[in-house]
Design goal:
Elements: H1 2-13, H2 18-25, H3 29-32, H4 34-46, H5 50-57, H6 59-78, H7 83-97, H8 100-111, H9 117-145, H10 150-153, H11 155-169, H12 185-204, H13 214-236, H14 250-279, H15 285-309, H16 315-333, H17 342-368, H18 376-415, H19 422-429, H20 434-467, H21 478-489
């Protein structure tokens, strides 16, 4: 859990420190953005390899290597003197961090009997769901009161403790068998190129104006071609290094689709909300973190409740309720104005946070229930990758929708600012300085357009969550899942 929480927090904590890093290292915003992009690119390449690397090195050695690489890279990130150094060590850090979350999930899921896996996923979920919310809060405090290298140095004591605990407590399960042959270099290359290209398109598409950019078009084609080749090759290979057969499980496939939606909401809104708080409400980095915190606290409170409920009610009911509650919180945010304060945000964030607990715990339990222990590391790697790509897709779509909606709203509002409008005419005729009045009108139009665009995005999120509720019926019931899990454990 220590390694996983460290990795998840680190993926979001740097976002609030990018401006300070850019100023300190003499880098442009475009250059410094690679600090975040490089880490995610390395993460998503490692995630699907989780099962193969676990089998090759053994559970303990693989987790030790991952923790060691992540911790040492954190130290080197904090001591970087140029943006190129920082990006390099962030990529190395991402290679170590990509294994921490799926490996932690596999360890927890395998360690608990079928009837207690809901409680195990509640423990896991506290890190997986709360981490992205704590990251900006912690990052905002550090940026406002200290210097940016500290956001990397705080990983050192946690990483060392996690490393020592892994030596003491993590063992290699007997059912994990070392691969009988070396890795397929051609398939690995196709996978790495395809996933990295896709992630780049999702991360940088908005900045490069999507398909008006030649590089985005080229990488989109490359991604589709490489991933198609990789999938066909792995399905035909009797001993694939990424076992895609787990998608034959209906619950795993349906759960993965819902995970895309939950990633859409969790990661997408975790990017959009800080921008709304800072650009519209004028919050500082620390105030933004505090405004996000109620959601994290609500998630932490709902996780244990959801874990116990999995033994009492059908988990599908909890998942559907979680999707509906998150939709309600997002819809309420769609009514915020430029004069909104902390308490206007508080309850929608609480609803969203509470919903994630009821969504995440049974969803993970049911999704992985029919997977055998021998395939668990592979399945958790793919499941984590799917959720990560869902988050990247959510961020890309929400950024695009917000920008386009702002342009549309600004044009619509500006069309009404004419002398034919009595209010406008009265304001200009009564102004002591006509130029200043025009500038004030333009600023007011722009501010209102920004608010309308964010409200639109919040309500689009709500609609997406509601539309995903029917997918819940593709999942197995909790009782069937527990029986399947017990059978799979013996497989």
């Amino acid at each position: 859990m220590l390694g996983m929480i460290m990795a998840i927090i680190d993926s979001s904590i740097v976002n609030v420190a990018l401006s300070q890093m850019a100023g300190n290292l003499g880098a442009s915003i475009d250059e410094i953005s690679w600090v975040a992009t490089g880490y995610i690119l390395a993460n998503v390449i490692v995630m699907p390899l989780n099962g193969w690397l676990t089998a090759l090195l053994g559970r303990q050695k693989y987790y030790l290597w991952s923790l060691g690489i992540f911790t040492i890279a954190s130290l080197l990130c904090g001591t970087a003197h140029t943006v190129q150094e920082l990006v390099l060590w962030r990529i190395v850090q991402g290679l170590g961090g990509g294994a921490l979350q799926p490996t932690a999930q596999a360890i927890l899921f395998e360690s608990y009997p079928a009837n207690k896996r809901g409680q195990a996923m509640a423990i896991f979920g506290i890190g997986a769901m709360v981490g992205p919310a704590i990251g900006p809060t912690l990052g905002g405090y550090i940026v406002d009161n200290y210097t940016w290298p500290l956001i990397f140095f705080i990983n050192l004591p946690i990483g060392i403790v996690a490393f020592m605990m892994t030596l003491a407590y993590i063992r290699n399960p007997s059912y994990i068998v070392k691969p009988s042959r070396g890795i397929d270099i051609t398939g690995l290359s196709a996978m790495a190129i395809g996933i990295a290209s896709l992630q780049y398109v999702l991360e940088r598409g908005q900045r490069e104006d999507w398909f008006s950019s030649g590089s985005i078009v080229m990488l989109s084609i490359l991604s589709v071609t490489a991933l198609t080749f990789f999938i066909v090759r792995e399905l035909r290979d009797p001993h694939p290094f990424v076992d895609l057969s787990v998608f034959r499980s209906r619950s795993f496939t349906a759960g993965s689709i819902i995970a895309v939606v939950s990633g859409f909401g969790l990661f997408g809104l975790n990017l959009v909300l800080p921008l709304f708080f800072q650009n519209v409400l004028g919050f500082s980095a620390w105030q933004t973190g505090v405004a996000l915190l109620p959601g994290a606290v609500a998630t932490a409170l709902s996780m244990p409740i959801a874990g116990r409920l999995t033994t009492v009610i059908d988990g599908r009911i909890s998942i559907a309720a979680g999707l509906a509650m998150f939709a309600a919180g997002s819809w309420a945010m769609g009514g915020l104005t430029a004069s909104a304060g902390f308490w206007d945000i508080f309850w929608p964030r609480v609803w969203q946070g509470f919903a994630l607990g009821f969504l995440f715990v049974p969803l993970t339990t049911v999704t992985l229930s029919a997977i055998s222990n021998a395939k668990m590391a592979n399945a958790t790697g793919l499941y984590t990758l799917v959720r990560q790509l869902g988050g990247s897709l959510g961020i890309a779509i929400l950024e695009l929708l917000q920008t386009r909606r702002q342009d549309f709203a600004q044009q619509t509002l500006a069309s009404g600012v004419t002398l034919a409008n009595p209010a406008v005419a009265a304001m200009l005729n009564g102004a002591a300085n006509r130029t200043q009045a025009l500038l004030s009108l333009a600023g007011s139009v722009e501010q209102n357009a920004i608010v309308l665009s964010y409200d639109y995005v919040f309500r689009i999120c709500a609609i997406v969550f509601v539309l995903s509720i029917p997918l819940v019926f593709m999942l197995s019931s909790t009782r069937k899942s527990n029986a399947a899990a017990a059978a799979a454990a013996l497989d």
